[in-house]
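During the second year of the project, the team shifted from modelling isolated chains to modelling whole assemblies. The rationale, set out in the original proposal, was that interfaces cannot be judged from single-chain predictions alone. As a representative example for this report, we include one of the complexes processed in the last quarter. Its constituent sequences, exactly as entered into the pipeline, are reproduced here:
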Amino acid sequence: MAETEPREALTLEDLADVWHVLSPEDRVAGFRLLPRSEAEEFFLSHDARDQAALLRALPPEEQRSWARLLAPDDAADLVQALPPEAREHVLGLLDDQTRREVRALLAYAEDDAGGLMSPRYARLRPDMSVDEAITYLRRQARERLETIYYVYVLDESQRLLGVVSFRDLFAAPPGKVVRDVMHADTVAVRDDMDQEAVGRVFRETGYLALPVLDAEGHLKGIVTLDDIVDVVEEEATEDIQKLGGMEALGAPYLQIGFRRMVGKRAGWLAALFLGEMLTATAMARFEDEIARAVVLALFVPLIISSGGNSGSQATTLVIRAMALGEVRLRDWWRVARREIGAGLALGTTLGSIGFLRIVIWQAVRPVYGPHYLLVASTVFCSLVGVVTFGTLAGSLLPFLLRALKLDPASASAPFVATLVDVTGLVIYFTTASAIMTGTLL
Amino acid sequence: MAETEPREALTLEDLADVWHVLSPEDRVAGFRLLPRSEAEEFFLSHDARDQAALLRALPPEEQRSWARLLAPDDAADLVQALPPEAREHVLGLLDDQTRREVRALLAYAEDDAGGLMSPRYARLRPDMSVDEAITYLRRQARERLETIYYVYVLDESQRLLGVVSFRDLFAAPPGKVVRDVMHADTVAVRDDMDQEAVGRVFRETGYLALPVLDAEGHLKGIVTLDDIVDVVEEEATEDIQKLGGMEALGAPYLQIGFRRMVGKRAGWLAALFLGEMLTATAMARFEDEIARAVVLALFVPLIISSGGNSGSQATTLVIRAMALGEVRLRDWWRVARREIGAGLALGTTLGSIGFLRIVIWQAVRPVYGPHYLLVASTVFCSLVGVVTFGTLAGSLLPFLLRALKLDPASASAPFVATLVDVTGLVIYFTTASAIMTGTLL
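Output from the structure prediction step:
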């Protein structure tokens, strides 16, 4: 419901619509065609990367007013999105207070609570009356605070005593003092807490903002829920891309440069390829068996892809459950028991399908020779073994990686693929030897 | 920073810590040991599924007060999490107004804006003065509204005229009327808009709440940002699980029943298996070639897994970019051009590694016979072809599925795997025939 009069000029919607297909030059040209107020809205709604690109492309005399539109946490993000040599110049565009705040924020890692927080929060003393507090906040509301809806009650040394929602204050009898209406039992996060953990605290508490404390309990800033939506989405994108077998791109697909994108994909692809070379070594060990019973080779892709698929299911489930905090390191045994059961059930299902397929096919067109029942039994037993192994390995590797302090998402997919393919071949050919020696082999 | 005195009783943190390993009975027992105020906090912080399970396990005389703790949108979610036969009973526990509101909400699909919204928003008339408005809101603040921080300005027929943030109102000169300080150019969503699209509007605007309108522009409720964090996470989990080659579980990993979990995995695994059976058919067509040159079989797993891995990278990237709105249907040709380039670059890289590996290995231990250069060339050419094909197929299938109105995430992974494996075998053996006929074949 954006009620706007018809007009000739470029609108915000027009520009947003074509933004992702424009060249950097056309973006700046389009941006400068917008009326100032729409351009501001457009600028503020974009992420730090786009803002940095726009800012750098504008003529020097226009840059200051755009840089100063930003709250300190957003300005810090923009500075971080700049190449190192451009950072001091942009810091120089800010007013003194903001520059100080931005420098303080830049000291934190980008994905810690400290790197997400804004230092501009509304504050009160505990001994103010509710009416004094409301008047005082009415003055603070005109400042550029992140939110006035949560108000933090501090002692003289900036230690957090409690928090009061604006709404509580507003609904309280005017005579009470802030200490009486505030919640002393405040949920807070530490400035060095990882952003994923901060996201979990938001999810558990349902608050719109959380205070960020240093090790001594001093209030350093607040993190607001809108920052967390981006974090949640970003983390999910990273995990999805890592599970897809590559480095996280760290930029939108159509915006990242071709060489960088290929680089982020080639590394893992080459690592996977080197791992998969072990399959050629494994196959070479069974070259005699294949030469004697070529029929065995026919089912190699089927067997190893089934192991890979079941391993990938298990890995995906466990990694996502870990990311959501549903599964912890100490749950490994519960997960293992579950997955052994699941692997046996799934392996038996696939094995039965495979067995039936060979038997039925043979009845229609006898391609598997007189010993087709041995072939079918080999396929059945191998599938049970391979799928169970794939499922178990896929579910336990994330635990192992986490225990070794590695990121489960980025390493599991390739490890599982290689491990399961190589082991799958060994299981298959060993089963074949056991079943077929004396007949086909 | 949860400052609590030491005490003997079970605390909220204790219970939360062990919650996910408790049986349903132990959960209820533990829950009933909490002091009432902690139990309420605990109840409210859980999702609808847990709330429904707890509520049903409590004795009938205690259920009413728990059901009435919930705001109408949360109550509607809880009712939806109940088995159909239990719904009327729980609706009967609510007060009349809430029950009416919940029934209205239940008419919407769970994943539409209408299914997410709360009907309890703060409202004003346009001709009130700012001071009157603040006094009026102070009264509304004591009611159970979702938020008082965005206030919606309605005409007599409940049509939305504009929105004013509480903060604007608070900072405005007292003599002005609401119409002067409100924003008429309001961003709103339709009640039948999909929740993913609602998430994107939140991301683009950065607001804490959005009004939900019906087709005639009447305000039906509001969606708040905290609902969207859950939605974003849920959608990411679904996409991750689908990309992992299974149906989305729809419940936390350790909580879903074993049979349901295996069912959600067995379906896709069996579909993938049936598709992969085509590889056995494809291999059978080349049985003579394998019999003549067993060395060819050794590289089958390596070749097809490289095609699968590169296809999986491309599919994952495109599907995530689609989910984030970075890539749209009409971008297919830009993506295809990019991915052909990426595929050629990646294929050449892997092919070169493969070629070198065979040549170096042969120098160390001559296992590939006198024609090892032909084998190495076959592997090189096949990898360029297979990886390029895998990359292109992986990137374009999501577009095809989306154009056919199917969910790209749930179908691409299996299709790509099967397509690329079968085509990979054909490419490999055809290349081998072309290069080796007259020598090895």
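The beta strands of chain A are 121-124, 147-154, 160-165, 189-190, 209-213, 219-224. Chain A is about 65% helix and 5% strand.
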